[in-house]
Amino acid sequence: MSELFDRVDALLASRAPLPPPEERKRLRKAHGLTIDEIATALQVRRATVSGWEAGKTEPRPPERDAYARLLDGLSKLYPAPADAGAQGEDTAMPETPTAPATPAPKARPLSTGQGPEAVAMTTAENTTRPRPAAAPHTPGPSSTSRRPDARKAAPAGPPAGGADPRFGNGPLAVVDVDTDGQVLAYCTGGLVLEVPARSLPALVDWTLKEAKLGQPRLSGPGKDADPLLVLTEAALKRYGLPVALTDEERLAGRIPEGHKAVKQLARAEWKLTKRGFGPWARIYRPAQGAERNCVQLCIPSWHALDPRHWGHAAQLPPADLARTLGVYASRVMTPRGSTAVTGLELMTALHPPTRASEPDATGKRHSEHNPGSLGKDPVDCAPCEAPDGHPLLADLPRFHVRGPGEKLFEEAYDWARPMTDDECTLRHLVGIDVNMAFAAGANGLVVGLGAPEHVKAPVFDAKLPGSWLVDLSHVDLSRVKVGKDKWAELDASLLPSPFTPKGERPEGPAWYATPTVAYATELGYEVRPIEAYVRHDNGRYLDDWYNRLRGAYLATMADLGVHADMEPADFLTAMNDYKERDPQLTIVVSAIKATVKGGLGKLRERPRGEGWRPGRPWRALARPTWRPDIRAAVISRTRINLHRKIVKHAAFTGQYPVAILSDCVVYAAGGTSPLDFLPYRDGRPLPGGFKLGVNPGLVKHEGTQSVLWGEEVRERFDAPELNLARYIKDGTVTGIDNGE
Question: In this predicted structure, what is the pLDDT of residue 269?
Fold first, then answer.
């Protein structure tokens, strides 16, 4: 009988009722879920969930029952507005989730100069019962919101509440002071808290005991993210901190230890890290067991948010800034400093150095090495991997310049050539740019986890990460392998060498990372390394890091109207004005990209003042994440990935690049669009070549200029090989840039 019931249940599930497509999307957004999260949970593709929400397709068993169950649960948490049916399909979907029916905390109106609007507030007594704002709130005037054009209500970000009740108000808050002198904490999801703290130590206490801010760990053995407070100029004044740093303080990166605010913290037995009280200060007390007592501060007016990566975020009103940083925190992680610092910290958060062991005979657990991590102790790099000035090179003569046979030099492309006569007859120069190129280079890459082993005359192993001294000067690009038993005849004079950043053909033995040497064998040539530093302890350390950043990038671009399953022409159209659709999310996209590049750059961080002298160690060397070999491997693979596409394109079309800068490639073309020279057939790209799309590793349109512009610029600066890829985006050339 039970089997019969199971069959009946299966029949019912196959026709499980589903809400209309627009309601499915509303419910997902109300709970702060991304399409990727739902796709992962249901074990389907992202495009499948997009089709369900667009009404293009309907789910089938067994996914239909699970999807219906999810939507039913969400509908109970976020019931549809009573007038939704009357408004029809044009109803704007609310971004802020409606709270379940509970006794509402006392609402307090905020005066904006445009009439009162009710904003849900929680008092100090109610901070354990946070509740999203009943309506999008208008932030009160502050140091960042007193301009008339800044009074517009901020769209809500991710919901403040999460699955972990300890962090019910989200990962961070922007602290500001309204015109009545009340200190307010603007959280994610439109939530605003009243802050009772009257001093800086009291603010730290309130944050840890009542604010319910923070973020759960990203990995089982990891640590929860500390709460982040962003202090506006008004909040700085309230808590006795300077609104701006002096030139001396800015160079030092902190306010003096004798500042009254620092002394106030010391009297309350709070400590600061070695970084001191700077733009990204960390205030803590020693951990008690598993409980951490640490609060991080972000101070935008002290240049905590670098405008190169965060745009105008420092000038946003508090609610908008909370939303921007909240989206980044929910999709990447709570910022730990600059985007570079955060990128490096994300690697560690996903692969913590230690974990708890199995219980011993007494039932006690101990700290042990976490497999797949870099461990808790730094390791020396190989001498060829060490940058100039490293202690390993202390015995070299003072002015010695290391050549390719002494130094691993894996960097991104900076190459250009004069145009041919045929290319000059074309009208346009079109630049294409690889999306998240260095992130794509990290995906699936096997890197060393431990110290290198020196070997003489090794047999090359493409699966073994390391640095190899090998002569690749015999590789001839005029005849290369482009497939199994398939060779192509190319014009090598129009191609850069894949083995050097400047595209010059190597002249003898040089040090290369594994992906570069492996590409030489892929092109059909034999390699015989002279010596190598290899790492037998290895793994795909960066895979989780890549997946986290890829998901953050794709989810944010999808919110901006650029989806992964678009047709090429639709993708180009969507990319034309995506930055204008939501400037705050555009800032998040920029920050995600900077997190990738900055995090990889931190793997080979150089000395930063502090009285350092060549041959002496510097602070970064004490980190297990100081790994120049990993950085070199990622850059090597990224450059090789690009060259592989260029060769495939040349072999199929006879077209060659005019200039390459990092991940941007410029071609001469008869039209202004990438579709005018990319060999799409029936909507399908050349296998192994360039493909338009938003996914990391695919390409987008970087910019178009005329061939006459390119020739005029090169003639003006008397530079026939001026790298036009550097200026293709907007055509502005202010002087010859050497790329440093």
Answer: 94
Which has the higher per-residue pLDDT, 195 or 733? Answer: 195
Q: For the stretch 650-680, what's the b/e string if a residue is b when 16 or more beta carbons lie within 10 angstroms of its beta carbon?
A: bbeeebbbbbbbbbbbbbbbeebbbbebbeb
Please tell me the number of Cα atoms within 13 Å of 496 on its side-chain side. Answer: 30
Give 121's pLDDT tier (boundaries 50, 70, 90). very low
- Which residue is it, tokens 């980044």? 328
Is residue 421 within 8 A of residue 707, CB to CB? The reply is no
* Residue of 443, 460, 482, 454 whose CA lies nearest to 633: 443
Residue 360: the pLDDT is 84
Report d(CA 282, CA 350) in Å as an integer. 21
Strand order in the sheet with 466-471: 453-456, 531-534, 466-471, 509-513
Residue type, position 288, single letter:
Q
Distance CA 700, CA 571 (A): 8
DSSP three-state, residue 383: helix
Distance, in Å, from the CA atom of 337 to the CA atom of 416, rounded to the nearest integer, reads 36
Whole-angstrom Cα Rg for the chain: 28
SS3 242: coil
Predicted TM-score (pTM) of this structure? 0.80
- Both tokens of residue 265? 């913290």
Q: How far apart are CA 389 and CA 618, in angstroms?
A: 10
Single-letter amino acid code for the residue at 611: G
Q: Residue 58: which pLDDT band, with cuts at 50, 70 and 90?
A: confident
User: Cα separation of 705 and 724, whole Å?
Assistant: 10
Fill in the amino acid letter for 210. E
Strand (E) or helix (H) holding 448 = strand 447-448
Long-range CB contacts for residues 108-111, cutoff 8 Å, separation at least 24? 108/194, 110/137, 110/138, 110/139, 110/140, 110/178, 111/140, 111/178, 111/179, 111/180
Q: CA-CA distance, 648 to 689, in Å (whole number)?
A: 6
pLDDT tier at 139, thresholds 50, 70, 90: very low
